Amino acid sequence: MSEYAIEVENLSVCYKGLKSYSIRKNLLRRKRSEKELFRAVKNVSFKLQKGEILGIVGKNGSGKSTLLKAIAGIFTPDEGSVELHNNTVALLAIGVGFIKELTGRENILLSGMLLGFSEAEIRRRTDEIIEFSELGDFIDKPVRTYSSGMYSKLSFAITAILETDIILIDEVLSVGDARFRKKSYAKMKELITQKDRTVVIVSHDSKTLLDLCDKLLWINDGEMMQFGATKEVLAAYESYTG
Amino acid sequence: MLNRAFHDLKKYFRYSVVSAKSKLKAEVANSYLNWLWWILDPLCFMLIYTFIFGFVFDAREQYFPVFIFIGLTMWDFVNKTLLGSVKTIKLNKAIVSRVYFPKFILVLSKIWINGFKMMISFGIVILMMLIFRVQLSWNVLFFVPILLILVLFTFGCACFVMHYGVYVEDLSNVLNVALRFIFYATGIFYNIETRIPQVGGLLNKVNPVAFLITSMRQSLIYGTAPDWKLLLLWFSVSVILVLLGLRKIYKEENSYVKAI
């Protein structure tokens, strides 16, 4: 079990004046306003073994989601590197992921394909996903007609059933109503405890973190404060925030 | 880069097709006359232009309705693909911000959607050619290379349009005006070479869409061979455009999500 699933080295991600501009604004102000460089993640390094569960804590805006997106390959790192050793990866976050005018069923197929699964594999598991999402007949209605709860349920169900090697979870363990929350928590626990699955969780709930995570990473303003066993880091984080 | 492009194309090809199919289906499901619009839309515009230019302005092209229809069919493909590509990253924010995939796949998907509609339109062209008893020659075989160049050229342009559309908010306004101008300078409903003899010949050479439309008309309804040297030239230009467009997107696609 010394095989690493995620290796992050000296990772930095910047947002630099990438705001979109209109032509009028640009003509009026010839010189671009002084380069707004914002480093959201600074020099973060850690290694995660296959099957481990990592929690990330930190206050809002400290770069947790940016870090997850960098691991998922959505951002390229400005410095440093992220190595996933060819594992498939899925990012689970609130309220994202679907093409609104298409039906739930089509979205399952399309998201699955983007996650790197074959059509046959997805079709084989579609019924399971639909059942888990509890959407019933709504699955053949356009996603834009869904309530936000239904949206999240479907999104959760796809990631939970299709089982990528690495799952990145961005504060979505509180999806849906109380009953679905319980069910998704149980499913998540079941997924997580499989020893081949590597998981990174962003959460503000210390009970969840204590319950699920092997290791904890605490970042503050993009900087890595501490990385280690859950209990120690959590204690340090809680005494820091008071 | 070429290796990467081929690898990505192989991996995501099915995705582009499936997503195009689903979008076509969704388009149909939401309208009253559904798929009939794919036929009605170009047909109605053809009738309008035939009336205005054939009757009011007294145009005297042989097979005038077919002449217009070929132009409209090809123009619509270019126009819709380019306009559709400007905001495509923003419209797909949901998936762009959730998973990595090569962004040129979004353009490809647009090409399938509009290509499919173009093929329906060409089906009507064939039907009209039968009705008007157009004399066929072996030159109709130029249909394939002309279409190929049109698709490549459009794909290349659409890559750039998509890229700059991410950063320039009002690019769609500019593009709208520009495309409207090009529409009139392309000779959809008039013969560009005879109507404006001073610049028509030149326009026909430097505006690839005009040139391709003229070539298509020559080969399909007038039984003459298009200028194959110019075809070859525009083919090379299109290939280069596609390569440059792909390179641009590959280089910057991972910053898109920061800008939207």
List the helices and strands and how they pair.
The complex is a heterodimer of chains A (242) and B (260).
Chain A: E1 4-16, H1 23-28, E2 37-49, E3 53-57, H2 64-72, E4 79-83, E5 89-93, H3 104-114, H4 119-133, H5 148-162, E6 166-170, H6 178-193, E7 198-202, H7 206-212, E8 215-220, E9 223-229, H8 230-241
Parallel strand pairs in A: 3-7, 3-8, 5-6, 6-7
Antiparallel strand pairs in A: 1-2, 1-4, 8-9
Helix pairs in contact in A: 3-4, 4-5, 5-6
Chain B: H1 2-29, H2 36-56, H3 64-86, H4 88-91, H5 93-96, H6 104-131, H7 143-167, H8 171-184, H9 192-195, H10 200-206, H11 208-220, H12 228-252, H13 256-259
Helix pairs in contact in B: 1-6, 2-3, 2-6, 3-6, 3-7, 3-8, 3-11, 6-7, 7-11, 7-12, 10-11
What does this structure look like?
- The complex is a heterodimer of chains A (242) and B (260).
- Chain A is 38% helix and 26% strand.
- Chain A has 242 residues and is of the alpha/beta class.
- Chain A has two domains: 1-20 and 35-87 and 165-242, Rossmann fold (3-Layer(aba) Sandwich), CATH 3.40.50; 98-163.
- In chain A, the strands form two sheets. In chain A, strands 5-6-7-3-8-9 form a six-stranded mixed sheet, sandwiched between helices.
- The model of chain A has no long low-confidence stretch (mean pLDDT 81).
- Chain B has 260 residues and is mainly α.
- Chain B has one domain.
- Helices cover 77% and strands 0% of the residues of chain B.
- The model of chain B has no long low-confidence stretch (mean pLDDT 88).
- The A-B interface holds A 15, 18-24, 69, 72-76, 90-91, 93, 96-103, 106, 109-111, 113-116, 119, 142 and B 11-12, 14-15, 18-19, 22-23, 25-26, 30, 92, 94-101, 166-171, 174, 254-255, 257-260.
